Amino acid sequence: MQRLELSTHQALGHYLAHTQHTPSGVIGKGRALQQRDIDRLQHAGIQRLQVIRLAADDLHEDAAATQLATRLLESGLALDRAEAGRCNLIATHRGLLQLDEAQIHALNDLHESITLATLPPGSIVERGQVVASLKIIPLAIPQELARRWLARLDSQTTPIGMHRFNTLPVALLRSHNEGVVPERGDRFEQLTARRLAYYGCVLSEVRHCTHDADAMAQQLAELKSRCRLILVAGSSATLDRQDVLPEALDLAGGKTLHFGLPVEPGNLLLYGRLDDTPLIGLPGCAKSASLNGLDLLLPRLAAGLPLERRDLTRLGVGGLLRNQQREFSQQSLRPVAKTAPVGATPSTAPVTALVLAAGSSRRMGRNKLLLPLDGRPMIQHTLDALQGSGVTGITLVSGHQSLLLREALNSHPLSGRLRIINNPGHAHGLASSLRHGLAHLPPGHGGLLLMLGDMPLLTPALIDKLLARFHELDGEKIVIPCYRGKRGHPRIWPAALVPMMALASGDRGADFLIRQNPAWVEELELDNPAVIRDFDTPEALAQWQP
Q1: Number of folded domains in the chain?
Q2: Is there a single domain that holds both residue 155 and residue 190?
Q3: What is the bridge-based pairing of β-strands 229-233 and 15-16?
């Protein structure tokens, strides 16, 4: 690389050494000067320029930055466009940033001309956020230096890793003293659900029991196969390994792996296992939204990273959280990438439909789905909404008068695409039919459109509005239509939550997940009362207007 001072008319094809300002705009340093640039500079009265001439074995700063940053890519990362010798690595999904610090130090130690800067290790990263920036300091570097830099990379692992959060079903066990039962859905449960949602997890179940080892052990033994993580909030904090929770864990066949976290607040956190299910005994500070030790464990577990005693004892460096004055939801930064990274486009994963049509219509007095509306059974009108919509695959659960229902659907245009399954246990409530339908869904779907059979006013346009919003949110929220603030149906569920819907019981379906996890919900206000109009009674049916 050679620096020269030339007259402006001689600078064509050379690289500009310093940014120049002209009446028609800025010409940035490092630009390969073209004839239109020369004309602008001469028109501005600039007669001489400092320029750079590259040697045959030199790499221009943008080419070098792109070449080196490309070797840092792995799943979950994409490159921004190189500019002024800088190439940014951008997260293509939300998750946890893991770094090989020794490898990054070795790269930065090689030569001052190449620098690599990252977010702190363990950062919570949003999709579209810059996680690392590779900068070439001069306008060019020798190819031999680039080769030496690349040779320092570990051939087995890259120094920057993005780990996507998994949607873990999490059970919460709350113990209480005799006669003092916590209110279900209280502020602590709401906060816990919000905290879990921040790390991509779902509060799938909440149980209560008395604060004694036998009662807690019984609950733990039942919960271990129903979730991927158990949180235990005792009526009093665990003080030592002889306290109630460690004893209950032993009785349930589990083991306390570590008690006492080098994090403040959060010192009294207990970590253990029940078979393959991790368990966290919550410290009192978990009742606060402020950062605490729980917020250092949850992202690792949600990202699928190992969490052993050694990992816990090393949390002390940076573990003094008390004076940071931040809530858990304030950890991640706003995305700052200049261009959309690869993989950051809205989701287009296929959504399958599940129609619940098994009920006995007790309030109507006869099977409402077979009642004629404008000469056609009600169930046909409901299915009309899926005709021409963007759903792929339709599963319908029948039950009451299943043969008559099947006959009524034979003449519908969607009959060839319709998969009808009969639920012999339909009399046990809506949840029974929901679980039966979930067990027969086609594999590989990206979401579930859950419909009720008695909503004949729905339209394909309305369904497509729900699908569009679901895809805009990358298929990561429960999309619920509303009319004048009232929630209705149908609802679209993320694929990650579908397995947890099978925990439903009674006649409320999967509403328990919505109540327990409001942060997972996206309401879509629509100017169409069809989303809240069902026809359960003769009086409602008398108001039918297509």
Answers
A1: 4
A2: no
A3: unpaired
Which of 53, 72, 91 is at the close of a domain?
Answer: 53
Question: Model's pTM, two decimal places?
Answer: 0.77
User: How far apart are alpha carbons 528 and 149 in whole angstroms?
Assistant: 61
Its domain, for residue 43, covers: 2-53
Q: Are residues 124 and 226 in the same domain?
A: no
Q: Which amino acid is at 429?
A: G
Among 107, 93, 109, 90, CA closest to 159: 107
Per-residue pLDDT of the chain (546 residues; tens, 9 = 90+): 788 888 998 889 888 989 999 998 999 888 889 999 999 999 999 999 998 888 899 999 999 999 999 999 999 999 999 999 999 999 999 999 999 999 999 999 999 999 999 999 999 998 889 999 999 999 999 999 999 999 999 988 899 999 999 999 999 999 999 878 888 778 899 899 989 999 999 999 999 999 999 999 999 999 999 999 999 999 998 999 999 999 999 999 999 999 999 999 999 999 999 999 999 999 999 999 999 999 999 999 999 999 999 999 999 999 999 887 688 888 875 545 555 444 444 556 799 999 999 988 887 878 889 999 989 999 999 999 999 888 989 999 999 999 999 999 999 999 999 999 999 999 988 999 999 999 999 888 899 999 999 999 999 999 999 999 999 998 989 999 999 999 999 999 999 899 889 888 877 789 889 988 888 999 999 999 999 998 877 777 777 766
Question: For the purposes of burial, counting CB atoms within 10 Å of the CB of 406, is it exposed (0-12), middle (13-18) or buried (19 or more)?
Answer: middle
- Name the nearest CA neighbour of 481 among 471, 492, 497: 492
Claim to verify: residue 139 and residue 232 sit in the same structural domain: no
In a domain? residue 330: no
